[in-house]
Amino acid sequence: MTAEQHNQSEMPSTGTPVFQVTHLSKAFGELQVLKDISLSVNHGQVVSIIGPSGSGKSTFLRCATLLETMEHGSMSFMGKTVCEEGPQGAVYAPVSELRKLRALFGLVFQNFNLFPHYNVLKNITDAPICVQKRDPAEVLEKARELLKTMGLSAKENAYPCELSGGQQQRVSIARALISNPQILFFDEPTSALDPELTGEILKTIRALAARKMTMVIVTHEIEFARLVSDHVVFMADGVIVEQGPPEEVISHPKNPRTQAFLMKLSHKA
């Protein structure tokens, strides 16, 4: 066992994990992007994934949210199998089952991905009503509750171009929450925002954490990760190099690779 593999210790278990992936590997042609990644996320945990560009963070998130398929490994949500390792590699559940499993998670993109020709309310309600065939009255009521929580009640008829970046990101978080997911994944939620607007999203995510929303956040904002997380994963070169509480991984990293990464960032600051 290598030192890097040894550092992939699993987080403490408290019942069935909300999300679990074991021995995940992913390649694009000859390029091996993810190598033997294992991670378990329990109810109410906020896990931040940090690391240099090209470390595999976003690819991991895309595999976790079924936007990419992995070559090897197993994955589950709430104990329900997404894929498991077979003789030829990862074998995914039938499409009908995957469709159900997709309802267990929400994804917030770094560039918001709102429909520019839909107003705020329609951006949030379109998929639940048109794709999931949920009761429109119930969906509209839930959407307005979420907008109130996000401080955006006055913006339900506004279009994305009329909103600030922070407001657009809060709309995208509301859209992810409308389906009552068990876990939220965030892909660099503050990367398109200036520092003031980053504070808005930090406040929103901390409020979700206070409500015990389970979250996995890929971020380049180290201070953001320190403030919102109870577990931090440092990835480099397609492996988990080090993980643990933020005060350990960020404030007192043990692995030289983690130390070098954080030192480089501190010099840029």
Strand arrangement within the widest β-sheet reads 7-8-9-3-10-11
Q: How many separate helices?
A: 10
Instruction: Pick out the low-confidence regions.
Output: 1-14
Say which CATH homologous superfamily of the largest domain is assigned.
Answer: P-loop containing nucleotide triphosphate hydrolases
**CATH architecture verdict of the largest domain:** 3-Layer(aba) Sandwich
**CATH C-level of the largest domain:** Alpha Beta
Beta fraction of the residues?
Answer: 25-35%
Rg on CA atoms, Å: 19 Å
Tell how many strands the DSSP assignment holds.
Answer: 11
- Average pLDDT value? 90
Topology as a string of helices (H) and strands (E): HEEEHEEEHEHHHEHEHEEHH
Instruction: Provide the helix percentage.
Output: 25-40%
**Structural class per helix/strand content?**
alpha/beta
How many separate domains?
2
Cα distance, first to last residue? 36 Å
Overall form: globular
Biggest sheet, open or closed, and with what strands and sense? 6 strands, mixed
In CATH terms, what is the fold-level topology of the largest domain?
A: Rossmann fold
Draw up the topology in text.
Blueprint: H1 3-6, E1 19-28, E2 31-41, E3 46-50, H2 57-64, E4 72-77, E5 80-86, E6 89-92, H3 95-102, E7 105-108, H4 120-131, H5 136-149, H6 165-177, E8 183-187, H7 195-210, E9 214-218, H8 222-228, E10 231-236, E11 239-244, H9 246-249, H10 256-268
Parallel strand pairs: 3-9, 3-10, 7-8, 8-9
Antiparallel strand pairs: 1-2, 1-4, 4-5, 5-6, 10-11
